[in-house]
Amino acid sequence: MKDFRYNRFLILVIAFGLIAALLIGIERHHVERASQQVDLAIDYEGLQELAQREGMEEADVLRAARDAGIHSLAVYETTFKKLNANGKVTAIAGSDILARYHAGALSDERWRALVAAGRIVGTEAYVVGNDAQTYREVKEDLFRRLGRSRVTVLSVGDEEVLAVKAHYESLLKMNLGMPTDEMRAVNAAGFQVLARPSNYENCSAEDVSAVFSRMDGIDISEIVFSGAQTLGAPKSLQATIDAMKARDLTFGLIEATTQLQFYKQDGMEEIAKGLGYDKVARLYAIPKDEQPKMKIADAVERWANTDEERNIRIDLLRIYDKPSPNMSLFETNMKYFHDTRDKITANGFTIGPAGTFAKYEPLRSLRALIALGVAAAGVLYLSLVIPRLNASPKHQYILFGIFGALAAIPIMMGNGSKIRVIAALASANLFPALAVIWQLDRVRHFRAKARIALLRLIVTAALALFLAGAMSYVGAAYLSGSLADTQYFLEFNIFRGIKLTFVLPLLFVAIAFLQRFDIFDGRMDATKGVIAQVRHILDTPVKVGTLIGLFFVLVAGIVLVARSGHTSGMPVSHWELQFRAFLEQTFYARPRTKELLIGHPAFMLAAMALLRKWPTMVFFVFVLIATIGQGSMVETFAHMRTPIYMSFMRGIGGLVLGAAVGAAAMVCVEIWQAIMAKAKEKESQAN
Questions:
Q1: Could you tell me the pTM of the whole model?
Q2: Is there a contact between 633 and 432 (Cβ–Cβ < 8 Å)?
Q3: In this predicted model, what pLDDT tens digit does every residue of 103-158 receive, in sequence order?
Q4: In this structure, what are the phi and psi dihedrals at residue 252, rounded to the nearest 5 degrees?
Q5: Measuring CA to CA, which residue among 159, 69, 72, 38 is closest to residue 108?
Q6: Reduced to 3 DSSP states, what percent helix, strand and coil does the chain have, rounded to the nearest 5?
Q7: Are 482 and 420 in contact (CB under 8 A)?
Q8: CB count, 10 Å around CB of 122?
Q9: Phi and psi angles of residue 263, each rounded to the nearest 5 degrees, phi first
Q10: Dihedral, 545, 551, 557, 563 alpha carbons, nearest 10
């Protein structure tokens, strides 16, 4: 039997790195806990529509929404479609004026005179103002967007009319600037304004100034730009940054539909960097085509999970357009708002302007200690799979010196962004493998012992699982400490090695296993090591049944990798969604399926396979599956947008439930083996 020694110096370095990682983790937790305010918002137009559909006064609907928990109303740029409906400004197609003239329906002599003089063109549009302020704002914006060559001022008697050279249907949809009357009405109703301006073509600093001048005197919670560009892109972004800084505005970024990073807007990263990441908040809205399919309770649960798990601080709700059973449309939506407010406040959040994360960048010295710890872990792993290196501490120290210098020196010099990513990737793959290898070395000497009782076997397996989990948590602390900063909390940066964390630990553990065990149960001397066993495997004749089995293993592996990471490459079944919802409602943080139903139960069964002296090949398979659970525990912390405490509790829940599922599986196996043994005994007696 090969015995591998664990270099105490390397373990000591790992311990110092762990202390540094824990200090960063504590700092991160404080930063996350300081940002616990959520802006519960909805479109102002949505509440106006609700009032119209229910035949209610707008003021009554606004008051009820405020009482139900809505804090901000999103106000978008006005359009002629909206203005034609409210009558404050009207855009009329020239072709309509001419048609009415020729039909004898144009009674105003002033307009008839314009037609007769040939001043009305069928392909143009004509803008008439009924509200002085709104007309003035529309006029100003039309000149900015179309230029004076396309907008002409006409006189109709003593009134001013704008002749606009534009496609009428397109003109109706054109953004015309932020409406001050709507923003003031929102403030007067007791809400803050979530401003949603859009960009101008060839936007200038003067255009930017004009947009923000309309917001002067308005109580604004956040600004979230509409469209594919931020205001000022691409050449006037500094003007936008300066205007937002002067008004101390929070910049809201819209989470992408994949729930990963953001909806791409040109200029958003420049503005975020210019403002400072401590003035950035993440916004989420349930997709428009998805909400009608959701019950209110499901939508409320979605908001609760969104705020807790993805650092969302602006919840932009939409109204339900169909009433729930036995409720009016108004009652349905007020219940939705009220229940959402109650759910997120019950989870520890407060309602108000979006909370933001303080600027956070750990000390370089702490990062450097983590880098040294990762280097030590890498050398330790190599020493546990390469016998010659294990027997030569001198060479281990040399390797550590090289790896440690390459990792720590760039960080101390302030140029270690790539090293941090490499350290995180190494942590995510090395420590789960080391956790399993450590347990393999602990239990190798147990196999010769006499058969132990089932209860003791379950306790032994559970303790081994918890010890392995603790070691994996070391890797989680390292991964989190390597990446932790405000940009990762907000997902400007993300960890991109998640798929590898479900493959490399399996490979690392497989190599270590083959160095320690003879998977052919004595038909080959295990001391020949991994290379000899791999050659034996490659030379082994394969039956059709074995090929079919390997095919299913391959499919399972593809499914595992495809289902892992920030985004899933495969759909999730309805029953699994229901199971996840049950776990989310039952536990503080939903344990991951890969841990509680796959990895951790397999760990328990691996212990049973070893101590019950099952074939080594079976033990090997269980060990590899068990590694999936350990890797998943570390990979959870790669989702840096999720608060560290929630990731920690998610892993604890997975360990406890996984141990319970594994114990149940061990009992079932024991019963099945007892039944089969009795059946064989009866068969032998009958013969």
A1: 0.83
A2: yes
A3: 888 888 888 888 888 888 889 999 998 889 999 999 999 999 998 889 999 888 78
A4: -100, 135
A5: 159
A6: 60, 10, 30
A7: yes
A8: 12
A9: -65, 125
A10: -120
